[in-house]
Amino acid sequence: MGDHESKGRSDAELIRQSLADPERFAPIFDRHAAPVHRYLTVRVGAGPAEELVGETFVTAFRSRSSFDLDRSDARPWLFGIATNVARHHWRAEMRRADRDRRLAESVVAEADVSDVATDTAHFESQREDISRALSRIDGPFLEVLLLVAGPGFSYEEVSEALHIPIGTVRSRLARARSQLRELLGMPGQYLEGASLEEVPALPEEG
Amino acid sequence: MTMSVELELLSRYINERSADAGQLDRARSVLDEAIFLEKEQRSPSELEAERGHRGRGTSKVRRNGLIAAAVAVAAAAALILPALSMSKSHAPMTTVDKITQLADVVQPKPALAPGQWSSLQLTGELLASVGSVGSTKTPDAQASLPVTIAVWSNTTGTTCTSQQFGTATFASPVNAQAWASIGLIATPFGQPATGCVAGFQASVGGGSAMTPISVTHLTHRPTVLAQELQLGNTGVASVDQMGTPEVGNSSQPEAEAVRHRMAFARLAVLIVGPTGGAWSGYNREMLRTMALLPGVESLGRMTAHSGRSGLGFTSGTVASLDPKTGDAKAVFPSPVVLLDPATGALLEARNFSIPVLASAAQDFVGSPAAAVYTQGVSYGVSTQWIDPVSSPPVVEQSALPGWISEFHSIEVVGRPDVDGQALADVINPYLGSGNSAFDGWNSPTPSQTTFEITITNPTTSVSTIVAALNASGLCQSVVVKA
Which of B108, B119, B178, B354 is the most buried (most CB within 10 A)? Predict the structure, then answer.
C-alpha cells in the first residue's frame, strides 16, 4: 500500500485490513518505527536496538489479531511489545553475564555484575550526564519515564502499554523523576505545572 | 501532561537518537519477510481473491519484466516446459525455514582496517562448449577447464584478481579431436591472468583477469532483491543480462517457473562472486533473499568436491521440447548451492553461468590464425562446480602477491571547487587508459572534495605523480596511502 492509500486511515483500520491482506501492515512500520527505535536505543543501546526494532514489528505483525480494534492508535500496543522485547533482551544479557561470572569469578569479584548493573551496563559507556543518570534508574521506573518523555504518552497510554494500573504509572513516574532530578544535580523540589500534584509517592499497585 | 525541566531534557535526549535510513531499512526488511512468508502460506483461493482485489497493476509490471527478460535471451530453445519439479509455485516452509536459519548464523563480511585486504580463493571446473565456428556446427568441441581464482579487496573498493586455468580435459577422444580441429589448445597460455579493479566505479586495471561484480548499488532489502532477481532489474548488468530461456508461447505458469529459475541462477552468481563493494551483512541478506525466492527446493545433505558435507538447494529443472519431434530434453540444468549447515557459508555452487568467466575460452585459442579466431564462433561457458578454498579471510598488505604492489592509492584534498576531472588531467599523462579511478566525498568543507585516487601500472614512479599533483596548484594535500 502506498503512502497515499494509507493516509487518513487509522492504525486500527490498517491493522484490520492487514488481517485479510498482510501487506496493509507495512504502513504501521513506516509511521511508528522511528520513535520505537529511539525508545529502544535509549533502553538497550544503539547496536541491539536495530535488531529489536525488527523483532518488535514482526511480533506485532504476528499477533495483530489480538490488537483491540476499538483503539485507533497502535502506539501503546507497539511500545508495550517493544518494552517486552527489550526486557527479554536484558534477561538474555543477564544470563550471559551470569555465565561469564561463573567462568571468571575473580574478575567478577572486582566488577559489579549485579542484575541492576548489568541491566544498565550499556549506559555506562555513554559519557553524557543524562545517560549516566538513566543508567542508575531501575528498569520498571525507567520504562515509565521513557514512555512519557519519548513518545509523550499520557498515563492512560503508559498504563495500556505496560499493562499496569494508572496509579502505578503515577507512582513510578514520580519516583523516576525524583531520581532523575537527583542524579542530574537538580534542586530536590524543582517541579512545575501539573507534575507537582503527581509527585507524592503513591503505594505501588497491581 | 505539562513537562518539567528534567522531562524536557530527557525528551530532547531521546529524540536526538534518530536512526539512519539503513538501520530502519534492515528492520523493515525483517518485517517484509514476515509479511511475505505469511502470504506464501495462505491458500490459493485467498491469494486469487487478493490478486483480484489489487487490480491489474502488479501483473502489468510482471509482464513488462518478462518481456524485458526475453529481450536478453541468449539461448534459443523453441518451447520451454518446466519439469515436474517446477510445478510448485513456491518453496515449502521447511526449505524456507532451513535457509532462514542459515541466514541467521552466516558470518558477516570481515571488517577491514586500513592496509588490510579481504581474501577469497575459489577452485572449480568449467565446461566450455563451442557450438559452431563460422557456419560449421561443432557439437563435440567440449572441454572441462580447471580453474583457480584468488580475489583480494580492500576498504577503498580496490579488488585484485588472479585466475589460473589448468590443462583442459575431455570426456572422450572425439571431444579432444573436435577441440583441436578448430584451433583450440589444451594448455592455456598466459597463466595466471592478473589485474586490479580500482575503486567502486570498476574501471579495469592491467592484465586480462576477470572484473568482479560490483554490488555497491545493490539493494539491502531482501524482499526488493527477490523481486528484482525475478525481473532481471537488480542494476548489476552482468547479472541482469544472464541468458534467459526463450519462453515463446508458454503459458503464464511456465513462464513464471522459468523466471523463478533465473532468479535463483542470478542469486547464485551474487553469492559466489567474486564481488566488489559488498557490505558487512551481504551474506546474510543474500540468504534471506534465497528464502524469499519462489521455487527453491532443498536437496538435503550433499558432498562438495572438497569433501565437506553441506545442505543443497536448487530451483528445479527447466526442460525444452523439440518442436519437430516433441521430445522433452533438459537444456537448462538448475544451479545447485551447497551451504555449510553450521555456518551458512558457501561450500560449493554447481551448474550455473558465471558471467565474469564467460570469456574464459579465449585463453585456449592456439594462435591468431585459428579458425575460432578468424571466423565467427558461438560458445558457452558454464560452471560445473566451484568451491571456496579455506584461506585467511583478512590479510595484511605484506601478504599480497608482488604484482599487486603495482597498485597504488593516493588521497588528495582538492582546493575549493576542484573536481576529479581536473586531477585526472594532471595524472593521465603518467597512466595508461583506464588505469585510474576516483572516489570522492565532500570534506573538509562543502566546497572541497577529498579524492581517493587508485592507480594501477603507472608508467612512472608514484612519487613523480605526487609531485605533479603538488605542482598543479589544485591540491591542498596529497598523501600516498598504499
Answer: B354
